[in-house]
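REVIEWER CHECKLIST
Item 1: Sequence provided? yes
Item 2: Single chain? yes
Item 3: Sequence as submitted:
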Amino acid sequence: MVSKGTENGLAVLKTRIEKPMQFPVVAAGHYHVYDGSHDGLSCTVTSYATGKEKHARRLQNNFFAAATYYASLFGMPYPFDHQDVIEVNSWGFGQAPPGVIFITQEAFSPLQDTLTRIFSGGVNERFVHEIAHAYWGHVIKMPNLEEQWLTESFAEYSAAMCIEAMNSNRKKGRKAFAKILNSWKGGVKTMGEGGSIFLANHFSGEQDTDAMDRIHLLYHKGPLVLHAIRLDLRKRFGKEKGDKAFIILLRAFLKNFPYQYGATHHLIGILNQLTKSDWQPWFDRYVFGTEVPPLG
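Item 4: Structure as written out by the authors:
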């Protein structure tokens, strides 16, 4: 925040973001505000209409834990010194403009009633997905709708890794990751073959299934593609070195194109260098094309 005051009878708030950002937003309403800080990061959680301090503090703690994990995973400090988390008076979604996370009300009161319990399924994964957009969406930006998988699919896979790592019980963490992985497989199975990740935003919208197929491509098939790449690296280098190579891939992508537009061909180039082999045919089949990658 640069300044806050009044000019000509109007409330005026001036802010500044140090790095180039897409999609800045302004939110206003009747909110209860809860501030917190941890290891140089600050986070303000705001609940809509009524005070919900207990749940706001829980979200705050989850944010600090996830931001710390991502900074370690990607070898890059969390991109924003301050994060706002704002409750939206609706159900079942989240969005992450620069420095802001909008999350719907079930994240604040997950067991309040039947409706909140319905939408609370997967809300923790959804929240850390939105946190991951600080990297996949703001550090790496999408230049067009064809490249949206670089923000959504990468954030989704990062969130699954975060959910696994944040569980203090390693066995339960692996089980949580496997559950998310199975949900991606289920989404792809529901959609069936014939969908290109690269063309996910080009459905006509004439049929009810078009919107769901877009979700299946960006949020289910896209993460499965990343998992398939990880499994391929394990086959090449062994499980431990393969996982390290996968993390190197993510870090190299972020490091080489910080706060710039990323593209799938950049990812292919990094993989080519990392493995000393040509990945273009693989991407032609599973990202630009319509086939589902092998996971065996």
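Item 5: Key structural point noted by reviewer: The chain has two domains: 23-132, 144-286.
Item 6: Recommendation: ____
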